[in-house]
Write a structure and sequence with these properties.
Shape of chain B: globular
Mean pLDDT of chain A: 93
Largest sheet of chain A: 7 strands, mixed
Strand content of chain A: over 45%
Low-confidence stretches of chain B: none
Radius of gyration of chain A: 13 Å
Mean pLDDT of chain B: 91
Strand content of chain B: over 45%
Helix content of chain A: under 10%
Largest sheet of chain B: 6 strands, mixed
Shape of chain A: globular
Number of strands of chain B: 12
Order of helices and strands of chain A: EEEEEEEEEEE
Structural class of chain B: mainly beta
Oligomer: heterodimer
Structural class of chain A: mainly beta
Distance between the termini of chain B: 41 Å
Chain lengths: ~110, ~110
């Protein structure tokens, strides 16, 4: 069965370190997205991609970057982790605006 | 740009009574609308979606929602709440650019 997986499920890192969160989907979806979820804010879009070599900034992109070298993967990198980036991160994919998103199970990141 | 307002941050019902979770949207285009559910420590699951077909949309687990353009609303209902319905619910609007915006969420509590 097709799926979307995130790794790791939990991560603790120190302030200033570079961290990469993985997202891998086997739906063959062109569109992939990264969100962060914080209490009182719902889900906020960090970065998204509509295909290989395409990346775009979302509403909370500062301090984050993504790259899309193939259809299946969209890794999210925190260049220099900050305590404000402690959050739960969700990756999602879709095949277009009418299909809705398929979400991964999330990565809980703690920056100490 | 489109946006979503979930009118209640928390709704509490008794088991067996009706559920109403309210959502208003704003969009410059004919939107697609979605409801997602998130159980504790889980990812988001698509409940139902409206994509300009029938205005009354039926989803999984007995939920349904009605698209009312005149009221810019897409409220989620269920005739009889079950304990397993306790979760966070997100209303989402998507325009033709595949840009999805999430509401802040409504936490549903079901009392025995």
């Amino acid at each position: 069965d097709a799926e979307i997986t995130q790794s790791p499920r939990h991560k603790i890192t120190e302030t200033g370190r570079q961290v990469t969160l993985a997202c891998h989907q086997t739906w063959n979806h062109n569109n992939m997205f990264w969100y962060r979820q914080d209490l009182g804010h719902g889900l906020r879009l960090i970065h998204y991609s509509y295909g290989v070599q395409d990346t775009n900034k979302g509403e909370v992109s500062d301090g984050y970057s993504v790259s899309r070298s193939n259809t299946e993967d969209l890794p999210l990198t925190l260049e220099s982790a900050a305590s404000s980036q402690t959050s739960v991160y969700f990756c999602a994919s879709s095949d277009g605006p009418l299909g809705g998103y398929t979400f991964g199970s999330g990565t809980r990141l703690t920056v100490v | 740009a489109q946006s979503v307002t979930q009118l209640d941050s928390h709704v509490s019902v008794s088991e067996g009574t009706p559920v109403l979770l309210r959502c208003n949207y704003s969009s410059s285009y004919s939107p697609s609308l979605f409801w997602y559910v998130q159980h504790p420590n889980k990812g988001l699951q698509l409940l139902l979606k409206y994509t300009s077909a029938a205005t009354l949309v039926k989803g999984i687990n007995g939920f349904e929602a009605e698209f009312k353009k005149s009221e810019t609303s897409f409220h989620l209902t269920k005739p009889s709440a079950h304990m397993s319905d306790a979760a966070e619910y997100f209303c989402v609007v998507s325009d033709h650019n595949n840009d999805m915006r999430f509401g802040a969420g409504t936490r549903l509590t079901v009392k025995p």
